[in-house]
Design goal:
The protein has about 200 residues and is mainly alpha-helical. The protein has seven helices and no strands. The chain starts with a helix and ends in a 30-residue tail after the last helix. This is Cullin repeat-like-containing domain protein.
């Protein structure tokens, strides 16, 4: 029970503020801060490998879910603005998720990989937790609005849905190439919105 209270306190005082900073794409953490957080993650996992890893993983999943819901709720309702909003928010979110994944490398390496080796296919890397929560809480609810803007034969939304469902995305797989519209695309392929 004491370990859980410590993890809660560590999450709220150290980890969550740093994760939030990375997700907002603020300047990278100072080397000393990064090392202290990495050491904290290491200590939490090593103190109680099963409980500590599971608690950090659960906190990350809940954080990403709430973060993606917040982004969805702030989405504009106005036609083409939703596409620009989605792409800019995905780019920012994916950059932050990659930085957090690197920060939580120890959790991925020494807890997630052990769980997966033991047959737990529901346990994913920190990056894949972020992408899964994005898909469920941002992409899935907003995709009908985006699909309505594209002609059926020109839609990129279905392909994006498939990419977001991929089980083992790597850092190289995420970013602007997973936007609805590639950078510098025009809007000539957009339909009237009544497909």
């Amino acid at each position: 029970m004491g370990s859980q209270i410590d993890i809660q306190q560590i999450w709220h005082s150290q980890l969550q503020p740093s994760i939030s900073r990375l997700m907002r794409n603020e300047p990278w953490l100072a080397t000393q801060t990064h090392a202290a957080i990495y050491t904290t993650i290491y200590n939490v996992v090593m103190r109680d490998r099963e409980h500590g890893g599971r608690q950090l993983y659960s906190h990350l999943s809940a954080y990403y879910a709430a973060y993606a819901v917040h982004i969805y709720e702030a989405a504009p309702n106005d036609g083409l603005l939703v596409l620009d909003y989605y792409d800019s928010e995905w780019t920012r979110f994916s950059r932050g998720a990659v930085a957090v994944d690197r920060l939580f490398n120890y959790l991925n390496r020494d807890w997630v990989s052990v769980q997966r080796d033991n047959g737990r296919r529901d346990v994913k890397t920190v990056l894949n937790v972020a992408v899964t929560q994005w898909k469920m809480n941002m992409f899935d609810p907003i995709s009908p609005r985006m699909e309505a803007l594209f002609d059926v034969e020109d839609t990129h939304v279905a392909a994006l849905r498939t990419k977001l469902t991929t089980e083992n995305l790597r850092v190289a797989d995420v970013g602007p190439k997973m936007c609805v519209r590639p950078p510098h695309s025009d809007t000539s392929s957009l339909g009237s919105g009544s497909t």
